[in-house]
Amino acid sequence: MSNGLYRPEKRIIGLMGGTFDPVHYGHLVAAEEACYQFGMEKVIFIPASKPPHKTGRDISTSEQRLEMTKRAISSNSHFTISDMEIKREGLSYTIDTVRAMKEIYVGWEIYFITGADAVLEILTWKNVEELLQECFFVAATRPGFNLETIDCKLGYLSKDLLAKIKTVEVPALAISSTDIRQRVREGRPIKYLLPEAVEKFIYQNKLYHN
Ligand code: NAP
Q1: How far is the CA of 103 from the centre of ligand 1 (A)?
Q2: Ligand 1 atom closest to Cα of residue 19
Q3: What are the backbone angles phi and psi of residue 13, rounded to the nearest 5°?
Q4: 114 lines ligand 1 (CB under 6 A)
């Protein structure tokens, strides 16, 4: 310290953004790994109300996805959940969420965790440059994901902004929500791909059956 002032290190919070239709072990491992690697105090799961790019496909209701996510994280003391995007309704723009969280967690460093495939589309998101000035991104990669595609696809961003995008390798992301929905439709097993409480909820509420 050169100026004699004590500056505590910044506290870090993770925001885990996704549709979570349904939430599965890949998501949970990704959040845990990001939390560990970047020294987050906690990770807030934020199910999207209606992702801006999904105006076509039917997704489970916000309440169902919120409930499944609550059940999935219940045993982890540093995971919590926010219904902020669901309450806001309409399209879930990440910039609005990050700004709202900054008002609650004043002075904290924010890391927005989501899938690497979603991050590759970030140039199409609302206010992308401001977004990358406001927070860091953690792109959770699936097995087989080529890290170079981030530089190739997002090369338009300045070096400083590109440096705000971190990656975390998550082998458990071989599990995917799309595959789980398809398995349910076809009557194939989903056991061990997601927490038992979420599996039960899916069958009890007949989700993803045609
Ligand atoms: P998506 O297009 O459904 O997902 C893209 C890929 O990323 C999928 O393979 C998905 O796997 C994976 N993924 C999604 N969330 C993940 C997570 N938290 N951890 C690990 N992998 C994840 O993406 P989405 O879920 O709708 O959107 C992701 C986030 O980006 C949401 O918070 C959404 O609101 C935000 N977003 C914002 C804007 C904007 O502000 N304009 C635009 C688009 C997205 P699974 O299907 O297995 O999850």
Answers
A1: 23
A2: 25
A3: -125, 140
A4: yes
Query: Ligand 1 atom closest to Cα of 125?
Result: 41
Instruction: Identify the residue whose C-alpha is closest to ligand 1 atom 25.
Output: 18
> What's the whole-model pTM score?
0.94
Pocket test for ligand 1, best of 88, 111, 114, 183 (most atoms within 8 A of CB): 114
Q: How far apart are CA 194 and CA 25, in angstroms?
A: 5
CA atoms within a 13 Å half-sphere pointing along the CA-CB vector of 200:
6
Question: 34-77, pLDDT tens digit by residue?
Answer: 999 999 999 999 999 865 566 555 679 999 999 999 999 999 99
**Sequence spans of domains, the chain:** 12-204
Cα(135)–Cα(101) distance, rounded to whole angstroms? Answer: 11
140 C-beta closer than 6 A to ligand 1? yes
CATH code 3.40.30.10 for 12-204: no
Tokens 């100026």 belong to: 3
Q: pLDDT (tens digit, 9 = 90+) per residue, 87-142? A: 987 788 999 999 999 999 999 999 999 999 999 999 999 999 999 999 999 999 99
